[in-house]
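Subgroup meeting minutes
Present: P.N., E.W., G.H.
Scribe: E.W.

1. P.N. recapped why we're keeping a running log of single-chain structure predictions: easier to compare across weeks, and new members can see raw inputs and outputs side by side.
2. G.H. added today's entry (249 aa).
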Amino acid sequence: MDYVGQVPAPPLDRFIDDIYCLTGVPRHRRMNIPPMPSAHLFLTLGEPARLWDSDPSVPPAVFSDGWFMGVWTRRLRNRWVPVDDVWRRSVDRIRNRIGDLASPAATLRAVEDELRSRLADAPSRGLELVQHTGGRLEISHGVVAVAALTEAAGVSGNHLAAQFKAHVGITPKRLARIYRFARLINSVDTLRPIDWSEYAHSAGYFDQAHFSKEFKDFTGHTPTEYLALRRRFPADRDFPPDNGPMPAE
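Output recorded in log:
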């Protein structure tokens, strides 16, 4: 599978980290997606995609056009919605523009233009507060007290939590947990011996039992099981530097 990505031009770069296009046949038919501090909008221009919940009692969902997935707090998701619920007719417009033989670069341009056309002239209420506070969480990798965030912002904890739920979907405390976990996962070098206690401490975990429980909640595996799976299925060369998604057996 080939990957082509780019950082969108201003002003989209204030809200979107990257836009990418995947073409070809995936190496693995199923991927396990743990929580990460980001939301994703997927557009399917080829075959339909099937998504499974980590709860086996939840039936899988099939999407032929795409889906939107907000910040989730457990693998694989809290909720996903069809792309047309978020972007009415957007996939049809993109398909009509690029045709059947479009290059990945042309596809990315069409998606970026569609995103830009939907950018509001003025930010919605509370968005700047959430962006500023979320930026502090990102820089600190989640190792910052929520009380310090509310004091710096000059708002109450309830107000900050309400604004985060409205714009992000989760509270700043829960987002901090995800940033902390993401720092740990993205720092793991599977080619070297792993001292999980050292990794956990560097990421801000001060309780080994809490770290082990959170790791299992977020990935579905113990740290030892996760490492064995990573070594069995190493990341593709020149693929996006994201150590979160992994093949599911």
